[in-house]
Amino acid sequence: MNHVRDLAVVERAAARLKPDGALWIFHPKGRGATPTDAQVRAAGIAAGLVDNKISAYTDTHTATRYLTPSGTPLEFWEHDYAAGSSIIGGHCFPGGSDIGPSPFQFGCADLNTFVVGKQAMQFFLAHPMP
User: Fold this and answer.
1) How many helices (H) and strands (E) would you count in the chain?
2) Domain boundaries along the sequence of the chain
3) Distance (Å) of CA 40 to CA 1, 9, 43, 105
């Protein structure tokens, strides 16, 4: 979540969760972050979820896990980056280095991108399954 308008997704995502599901929300952190921690938490609670885990995901983002009241963690990620390639329909790989005019290049040219594999590995190493 990088904008307050993204908070509307929380209610829709919560409505699709199974009774024992969970939702991770990644959002900016720190002074001036939008949406704020309080706004994200309010959106989760308003959707009937319970926040049970907060993680300093990167230097710029926080990850908070929200569970349904009877929830068992089920995690998924979503991003809204887009590439200009007509071949791959706008999808891209955040942190990819092959950025350019070719329709076969799939990297994102966004300043806030990150290498998904590296971030995922760091996250799962820091949060091992019991």
Assistant:
1) 3, 3
2) 4-77, 79-114
3) 9, 11, 5, 34
